Amino acid sequence: TMQLPRPDRRRIMTVANQKGGVGKTTSTVNLAAGLALQGLNVLVIDLDPQGNASTALGVEHRSGVSSVYEILLGEIGVAEAAVPSKQAGNLLCVPATLDLAGSEIELVTMVAREARLREALRPEVLEKLDVDYVLIDCPPSLGLLTVNAMVAAHEVAIPIQCEYYALEGLGQLLSNIELVQSHLNPSLSISTILLTMYDGRTKLADQVAGEVRQHFGELALRTVIPRSVKISEAPGFGQTVLTYDPGSRGAMSYLDAAREIAERGIERETA
Ligand code: ADP
Ligand code: MG
């Protein structure tokens, strides 16, 4: 595979959508692997207590391992919890354990509760880890964990499933992003809309894709992620589809999507 250019400035991208099952985790880990396999240094932050991103990256996340929970509490730094994934040495992951489930409530009484992840991801920390991209996998809610992710990020990527009700609830997500922009993180932008689980045999998938493109214009990536059994099987082997079945359509699509994100970012920065 070809190498991607390193971004001029490090990019922190939050993958969010308060709906479950739309492909947040799948997109986070596969885009991360796509960037890493094309030569970039990537850090995934698993911010969902379910720990699905950790599982997919083959990273231990049983209770007791150093995780994002201790980071949010301020007990440890990112460097102490980040471990290499099973896929590649330049793809790191900070795992999430079930301890994180209680943190939405614990965070409420903490100082600077919305900015704890941003504090942990401050430039000198990421500089030391030498990462080009940080991708944050959010839980399926708009609670304090997702707010922390949006406050810590430069950009948001929204995966949208090409299914019935795909656009339902999107208004709520967009107004939450606006709230974060106006009160907590003015430099946050929506950079990427990714259509997932596209089934070319159905009219519906085309309809949804058309509506999304009409609404979001060129924020929507040209690359569309197909519905693919390989993509859904890979996490069961602690893998992303890029290492599980590199020649598959699913793998190619995430590789393309990662390339598109990397190239668009650079166009924007030099524009
Ligand atoms: P979320 O993180 O938004 O809850 P997931 O990424 O966990 O969503 O995806 C939900 C389910 O759909 C998972 O079982 C996953 O394996 C499956 N899935 C995601 N993307 C695809 C795809 N392109 N093709 C087939 N299955 C997919
Ligand atoms: Mg998930």
UniProtKB/TrEMBL annotation:
Residue stretches making up the AAA domain: 11-190
Top-rank taxon: Bacteria
InterPro entries: AAA_dom, DNA_Partitioning_ATPase, P-loop_NTPase
A UniProt-annotated Pfam family: AAA_31
Function: May play a role in septum formation.
Family designation: Belongs to the ParA family.
Identification of the protein by name: Chromosome partitioning protein
Organism: Halosaccharopolyspora lacisalsi
